[in-house]
Amino acid sequence: MSCRMYFRLGILAILAISCSSPLLFAQSQPCANTDSSSNVPTQKTRITIVGVEFQSENPLSDAQKEEHAKLIQQQDLWTTTEQPDSSWVNQALNSMRDALRERGYFRTNVEGTPYLVLAQPSERRYVLAVTIESGPQYRLGHLRFASASDSPLVLPEALLRQQVQLQEGDLFDVTKIRGGLEAIGRLYGSKGYIDATPEPETTIDEKNSLIDLLINVDEQKPYRIAKLEFVGLPTKTQSELTPPQQIGDFFNPALWRAFFKSNMTRLPPGSSLDRNMPVSRDTVNGTVDIMLDFRQCPKSERG
Q1: Which of 2, 55, 285, 292 has its CA 20 to 30 A from that of 255?
Q2: What is the third-level CATH fold of 1-30+45-222?
Q3: In what order do the strands lie in the sheet with 4-7?
């Protein structure tokens, strides 16, 4: 009988993402040129890795080791006196962890031990000893979708499967799964389900080196546009703009992001969805009020 283990928190930690639609702002963002005189510059020290040594057997070929060593040495690493070495070591090794997880080494553990070779006020140089515990190489078993509530999923499973660029039997690629979850969040967001969140759960078949993936989708409710308002634009400029959506449409943040991108030459410099489009939502009625706010900062807020 196969040994099967169920994991939820583990894969959420590895994926480390929010899979719902982009965050919506209920108020305008601070002016970019607001005075920040209270921010005191922090003294930073450059970290230079002059050598990388692999300490144990691992699935990387000599060519792959050389490539990863080069990537590690090329990274732009900095630290402060308050930060432990583990902070920049983890940053330096993240690309290697990702590469192994893309090849099915789902439970890989990559650790680094820094050895100081030169210390200066503005720079510290190290040789980094790397230890890799790759664990088994896994493939995708069964891929299933389920509703987090008692109601059936609004979107067909076939459409959700298309968002995950993996087939059963493929190497269990964490990067592709992360991309699939993000794509599912965008798909729901395009249909007004701006709070929809897909959460992955895994069951590991150790005997056959397979991982079954269940994606529970918490769909929440769809939102329609109840109010749409432009402020702070000249009448002529506003007349030249065609909003991508109208009152009554299901709110689709992606269309508005594209609107800002395609109208960069017409809108004030630096305009963006995050900065100039506060959105207020009515959770009871499932509606949003959109304001496209291009007003200049008050003089008291200027630097």
Answers
A1: 285
A2: Ubiquitin-like (UB roll) (3.10.20)
A3: 4-7, 197-205, 210-218, 139-147
